[in-house]
Amino acid sequence: NEQSRRDDLEAIGHMLVYFLRSSLPWSGLDAKNKQEKYRKIMQKKETVQLEELCQGFPEAFKVYLEKCRNMGFKERPDYTKLRKLFRDVRTRLEKDEGTPIQDHDFQWNEGKDLGPLVPLGAWTTIQQPDEIEGRRSRGLCCLCGSKNQAYD
User: Fold this and answer.
1) Rounded Cα–Cα distance for residues 82 and 60 (Å)
2) S-S: 7 plus which of 3, 13, 126, 150, CB 3.0-4.6 Å?
3) Which of 33-47, 90-104, 123-137 has the lowest average pLDDT?
4) Nearest C-alpha neighbor of 59 from the set 51, 67, 71, 49
5) Which range is the signal sequence, renumbered to this chain (predicted)?
């Protein structure tokens, strides 16, 4: 099956939930072979409800995964809106805790010298391949060994 940006974003959502839960409902399923294991994983992913998967975590995680699952195969994601879901969580946490949350505020950093860390740069929207006008495929160029001209 061909993958799309939708699939990549959903995988990122699953990774974020994994970081919070330390496991996913389809982790560690027993199977006789890889084919059976992948089938069981697919079945579990299709049957687990997002409410269950994201239980105990901010609503943004469930909303993010819902948006990903409802996207069309070729649909262009609204990265700004998806990112805003989590920025809003950060803003609420800052308000609740009464202190700004820094990019390096993680439990595993507590008590460590963070002086050598470099701050994250400002976020900018990344141009997608289908947004670049006049972009030509470089595949044939590389295949043929030409450095000067690309062909579609």
Assistant:
1) 9
2) 3
3) 123-137
4) 51
5) none
Phi-psi sector, 25: left (phi>0), alpha (psi -120 to 50), beta: alpha
Distance between CA atoms of 152 and 139, rounded to whole angstroms? 8
Confidence of residue 114 (pLDDT cuts 50, 70, 90): confident
The candidate with the shortest Cα–Cα distance to 7, out of 91, 79, 85, 72, is: 72
pLDDT of amino acid 138: 54
Q: What does DSSP assign to residue 152?
A: -
Distance CA 53, CA 17 (A): 8
Asked if the structure places residue 114 within a domain, the reply is: no
Name the CA radius of gyration of the chain, rounded.
21
How many structural domains does the chain have? Answer: 1
